[in-house]
Design goal:
- Strands 1, 2, 3, 4, 5, 6 and 11 form a 7-stranded mixed sheet that branches. Strands 8-9-7-10 form a 4-stranded antiparallel sheet.
- The protein has helices spanning 7-11, 63-73, 76-79, 100-116, 122-135, 144-152, 197-208, 212-228, 232-239, 263-270; strands at 14-26, 33-51, 55-58, 82-90, 155-159, 164-169, 175-182, 244-247, 254-259, 275-281, 288-289.
- The chain has a single domain (7-289), classed as 2-Layer Sandwich (Ribosomal Protein S5, domain 2), CATH 3.30.230.120.
- The protein is built from 10 helices and 11 strands.
- The chain is of the alpha+beta class.
């Protein structure tokens, strides 16, 4: 692929992108089809080109993923004549199923494209992020649903195998997500999710019809029974009038969707369990570049 470097951008070679996080409605591992919901936790990636040097520096790990994204987007002529500095700041805890990898890969992909091109194509940003995640083996399916929810916001339904966005719609801004990060929880074999393909397909059919909260609750029951057997926090959330509750991704984070007037009650209830709570409003905003 040939890139035409935007010389006007290279005269001021610093770009900062902002990408939001997400939580799962339906896990995509079993069927390749998933659904996600944007939240307001965010990642910022600041990328600077310094002419006259070569190399890449960053303030976070995962060389394999980052290098793949950079070398997929920025032409070798630019790489060979510039030092690339990447500074990442994030509200999203990593390793909990809260789509931090998708948010980071999107943020770096978006910033890199803005450095070299005036016009940004959403699909190019997403494809680079998803393909690089698959290549670096930080995702089983490529997490196209996660990438889309982080990038576009709202509720997303997608076919991850074909990188097809099936449905996107905004979500009520009055809704919030209470995220519980449990301590000392062991996760089972995620490949066993595939044994329950038809049940996950049923959850996806519910979501297609707009029954997102039924779909999310079913996903929570399935993920818990297969991977965790730690149903008490989910049952507590249901008993305290959440709209839906589920493990996000492969966990161990648990996400409960509530109306704003139920936040304090839900927090008080979940504080009885050993872990940490995070509160985030839902997000309908698209990723952007400063």
């Amino acid at each position: 692929m040939v890139f035409l470097v935007n010389q006007s951008k290279l005269k001021k070679p610093t770009t900062t992108s902002t990408v939001y996080g997400a939580v799962s409605i339906i896990n995509a591992i079993a069927t390749g089809k998933g659904s996600t919901l944007g939240i307001s936790l965010k990642v910022k990636a600041k990328i600077t080109l310094e002419p006259g040097f070569t190399g890449i520096s960053k303030n976070f790990a995962n060389d394999k993923l980052v290098n793949r994204i950079i070398r997929s987007i920025i032409p070798s002529k630019v790489l060979n004549n510039n030092f690339i500095s990447i500074n990442l700041t994030s509200d999203i805890p990593a390793g909990w199923g809260l789509k931090s990898s998708s948010a980071v890969s999107n943020a770096i992909s978006l910033a890199c494209y803005k450095l070299i091109k005036e016009e940004i194509y959403d699909r190019a940003v997403l494809n680079t992020a998803v393909n690089s995640s698959l290549w670096a083996k930080v995702s089983v399916t490529g997490a196209f649903d996660d990438a889309c929810a982080c990038y576009f916001g709202g509720i997303i339904l997608s076919d991850n195998h074909y990188k097809k966005l099936i449905k996107r719609e905004p979500i009520n801004n009055d809704l919030w997500v209470i995220i519980f990060l449990p301590n000392g929880i062991y996760r089972g074999d995620i490949m066993k999710l595939k044994l329950h393909k038809e049940l996950f397909n049923h959850a996806f059919r519910l979501a297609i019809k707009g029954d997102y909260w039924k779909a999310m609750n079913l996903n929570g029951i399935l993920i818990n029974s297969i991977l965790y057997n730690n149903y008490d926090p989910l049952l507590c959330a249901i008993e305290n009038n959440c709209l839906a509750v589920s493990y996000s991704g492969n966990g161990p984070a648990i996400a409960a969707v509530v109306y704003k007037d139920n936040i304090d009650n839900m927090k008080a209830s979940l504080q009885n369990y050993d872990g940490k709570l995070i509160v985030s409003q839902v997000n309908n905003l698209k990723a952007f570049v400063e």
